[in-house]
Design brief:
The chain has 824 residues and is of the alpha+beta class. Helix content is 37%, strand content 20%. It is built from 26 helices and 34 strands. The strands form ten sheets. Strands 10, 11, 12, 13, 14, 15 and 18 form a seven-stranded mixed sheet that branches. It has a four-stranded parallel sheet with strand order 2-1-26-27, with helices on one face. A hairpin with a 6-residue loop joins β23 and β24. α1 packs across α24 and α22 packs antiparallel against α23. The chain is globular and about 100 Å long.
């Protein structure tokens, strides 16, 4: 028998056999409990990186483990394959996006298969394939018919040189990343999904997700940003226009000393037109437009404002306060206007100090008096209302209720719930995306494409302009069509959908990927959904996970699925670092998975990535540790091949054992218990592998000392070693399993279950301390009488030495663990 671990031959052999036999193909089976394990599908950028290897290795351990536990496991893979990089490649290298994408998919599929991941490749999907985006378009139509898809004007980043919309990420310090032109803000008609209709459900249903990390749920909660307060109507003194603000601190309304509008607020232009303030206001607005939304909402932003020559009248005290515009107020949030209460809001306090605006205290803490001239920061806690007219002298919480009642009774405001969450802008002025299935007719207006005419195909023969503009606009074959309602000439929508739309339902397509009649059959989705374990990076904590939850709730309301949450459990794995930072080409610290697989084998790559750190923690790449994992697999190979012939065919019952035989059997069952618990309960793959390594050490000790030769005990230990290792290192374990004479795959075996009786010990090691310091160890029978243990401990030469001539004050005996002798 070959005692050399030839990983290349072994891995190639089993990958081919698994593919030929359809080893991981799965169908619905009502007689088995199901388990749906899913890693977030990747963008086909061209090559796998170590982050991919980690993500997919984690998922594969879970999928293989659950299969061996008797579950019917769905473990699919696909490609999130629309997106900007394909267009950039087309512009830069003249390669059509479809060719670039499909070539990348082919390469990454080959790389994934070389890792030995247990995917059912018959279920593979790619979001850029017409068979997939047909149903993305169909889902758009369902949202459109439910009034959840609509078009409105929205402010976007516009590059006048490239003649295209830019994402916030493509604007660098106010300039286009492509051509360095100054970016403008422009109002364009854009398509939106009305996710705000689901804000309460998205927030409330986070309680249904105990299997999600708390930090992810908090991030979603903050993103939805539900706040209860009041909408209050101020009146512009100079024009009589209404100016609405939303506040959660209406108890401080008597402390309003100024008002700040977003530069985009529709009233700004009207209020400054023809005044001495017009030019400087326009210049301020131009300056603010160069900032991204992220910059403007950052806590680091230096808050700037400008008086615009108008005043707002407070509806509760009739006071006119100055109106400013500010770089930190956005039209998209609330009403685009905020009331300034510097005494009771820290941001407002700093702003008022900077611009010498009035500060008025309207809430006093109990037991002390705030004086404006002595204040160094805002007072934001509860207290008693003062300087607040009829509401003075009452606790501010009580005042909140009374002020809302007053506002509603006097028609100058109302209670309101606000959300930070905004409707989802899905329009992209890009080519490589799912076309939005809408037609514009001069007679009929906006007309949805009939379902029978789907998909609206992306034309492949298009010309990319250096400017980056979408070629769809200049493709007569695409744009020009016929109105399905009246038959007259009409135009197609040339925007495509945000790629997040494609990834908001892919987990459902995996349930029924080859269905040409519907997006998925409800029975199949009901069998597999929800995803039992979802695995991916924490960077998707908000957008992708929020959108997938939104889609699932919409589909439940449409009667297409029975679940209202898509992912029962979520694992967000950490990053793979090298030299303390994330791997990136620019830093020159990238380790190629392909190189590692070629040098050491896929099993070694998997072992290292799972052993180096718990999955949710960042992992530091370590070449020596990779070598260590390779040496370990070689040790396993030598150990099993050493015993293979002698234990092959050995049968019988394990009887009463003594000494080394008993110890080895105990170690075997301790390892089964530990590995099972670490995978099932904690996903602590690193400690599970560590336990398997200890079992290998135990087997070598047993072999080298020749203290035992019970073939039944050896066979049980070796077989369980292979079974426990199989989810982590699937190729070597498959080969070794067959070397032992087995005729069916190790991955089809039942997961081992430990025997409690095998864990029972006759003797234990007890630590002996003198005055709390360890001085010796003794081996005694389990549950020995305390006095007997004390007697043996005191009789040890090392202990006698430390207690000689000293009075023993007391002796503490903790059964089976410790003796502490206190001397004076």
């Amino acid at each position: 028998m070959d005692d050399r671990y030839n990983y290349m031959a072994i891995e190639d052999k089993w990958q081919r056999k698994w593919a030929e036999t359809g080893a991981y193909k799965v169908l619905e089976d009502k007689d088995k409990p199901k388990y749906y394990c899913l890693e977030m599908f990747p963008y086909p950028s061209g090559n796998l990186h170590m982050g991919h290897v980690r993500n997919y290795s984690i998922g594969d351990v879970v999928a293989r483990f659950k299969t061996m536990q008797g579950f019917n496991v769905l473990h699919p893979m696909g490609w999130d394959s629309f997106g900007l990089p394909a267009e950039n490649a087309a512009i830069k290298h003249g390669v059509p996006p479809a060719k670039w994408t499909w070539d990348n998919i082919a390469n990454m599929r080959r790389q994934l298969k070389s890792m030995g991941i247990s995917y059912d490749w018959d279920r593979e999907v790619a979001s850029c394939h017409p068979d997939y985006y047909k149903w993305t378009q169909w889902l758009f139509l369902q949202l459109y018919h439910k009034n959840l898809a609509y078009k409105k004007k929205a402010s976007v980043n516009w590059c006048p040189s490239c003649q295209t919309v830019l994402a916030n990420e493509q604007v660098i310090d106010g300039f286009c990343e492509r051509c360095d032109s100054e970016v403008e803000k422009k109002a364009l008609e854009q398509w939106f999904f009305k996710i705000t209709d689901y804000a309460d459900r998205l927030l409330d249903d986070l309680e249904k997700l105990p299997g999600w990390p708390e930090k992810v749920k908090i991030m979603q909660e903050n993103w939805i940003g539900r706040s209860e307060g009041a909408k209050i109507k101020f009146i512009v003194q100079e024009t009589g226009d209404e100016l609405e603000v939303f506040t959660t601190r209406h108890d401080t309304i008597f402390g309003v000393t100024y008002m700040v509008l977003a530069p985009e607020h529709p009233l700004v232009e009207k209020l400054v037109k023809g005044t001495e303030y017009e030019e400087q206001v326009k210049e301020f607005i131009r300056k603010v437009q160069k900032l991204s939304e992220v910059d403007r909402t950052s806590t680091e932003l230096e808050k700037e404002g400008l008086f615009i020559g108008a005043h707002a009248i407070n509806p509760l005290n009739g006071e006119a306060v100055p109106i400013l515009i500010g770089n930190y107020v956005l039209m998209e949030y609330g009403t685009g206007a905020v009331m300034g209460v510097p005494a009771h809001d820290e941001r407002d306090f700093k702003f008022a100090k900077k611009y010498n605006l009035k500060i008025r205290v309207v809430i006093q803490p109990e037991g002390r008096e705030l004086k404006v001239e002595e204040m160094e920061e805002a007072y934001t806690e509860d207290g008693i209302m003062v300087n607040s007219g009829q509401f003075s002298s009452i606790p501010n919480r009580e005042g909140m209720v009374k002020i809302v009642q007053y506002l509603e009774e006097n028609n100058c405001g109302q209670r309101q719930i606000n959300y930070r969450l905004r409707d989802w802008l899905i329009s992209r002025q890009r080519y490589w995306g799912a076309p939005i299935p809408i037609i514009y007719c001069d007679e009929c207006g906006v007309v949805p494409v009939p379902e029978k005419d789907l998909p609206v195909y992306l034309p492949e023969e298009v010309e990319f302009k250096p400017s980056g503009e979408s070629p769809l606009k200049y493709s007569p074959e695409f744009v020009n069509t016929t109105c399905p309602t009246c038959g007259r000439p009409a135009k197609r929508e040339t925007d495509t959908m945000d790629t997040f739309v494609c990834s908001s339902w892919y987990f459902l397509r995996f349930c029924d990927p080859n269905n040409n009649e519907e997006a998925f059959q409800k029975d199949k989705a009901d069998y597999w959904m929800a995803v039992d374990q979802y695995i991916g990076g924490v960077e998707h904590a908000i957008l992708h996970l929020m959108y997938a939850r939104f889609f699932t709730k919409v589909l439940k309301d449409l009667g297409l699925v029975s679940v209202d949450e898509p992912f029962t459990n979520l694992l967000t794995q950490g990053m793979v670092l090298k030299d303390g930072s994330k791997m990136s080409k620019s830093k020159g610290n990238v380790v190629s998975p392909e190189e590692i697989i070629n040098k050491y084998g896929a099993d070694t790559a998997r072992m290292f990535i799972l052993f180096a750190a718990p999955p949710e923690r960042d992992l530091e790449w370590n070449d020596q540790a990779v070598e260590g994992c390779y040496r370990f697999l070689n040790r396993v190979w030598r150990l099993v091949t050493h015993y293979a012939e002698s234990i092959k065919g050995v049968t019988g019952q394990i009887g009463n054992l003594e000494g080394a035989d008993k110890e080895l059997r105990r170690l075997t069952h301790l390892t089964i218990k530990k590995v099972t618990e670490d995978i099932e309960e904690r996903f602590n793959f690193n400690t599970a592998i560590s336990a398997i390594m200890e079992l290998v050490n135990g087997l070598y000790n047993y072999k080298d000392k020749e203290q035992g030769s019970n073939l039944l005990v050896i066979k049980e230990a070796v077989e369980n070693l292979i079974l426990l290792l199989s989810p982590f290192a699937p190729h070597i374990t498959e080969e070794l399993w067959y070397l032992l004479g087995n005729e069916t795959s190790v991955h089809q075996q039942k997961w081992p279950v430990y025997v409690p009786e095998a864990l029972v010990v006759d003797e234990v090691t007890v630590v002996v301390q003198v005055n709390g310091k360890v001085r010796d160890k003794i081996i005694v029978p389990v549950n020995m009488d305390k006095l007997e243990v004390e007697k043996i401990a005191k009789s040890q030469p090392k202990i006698e030495e430390h207690i000689k001539g000293k009075g023993i004050k007391k002796v503490v005996v903790i059964p089976n663990k410790l003796v502490n002798i206190v001397v004076g």
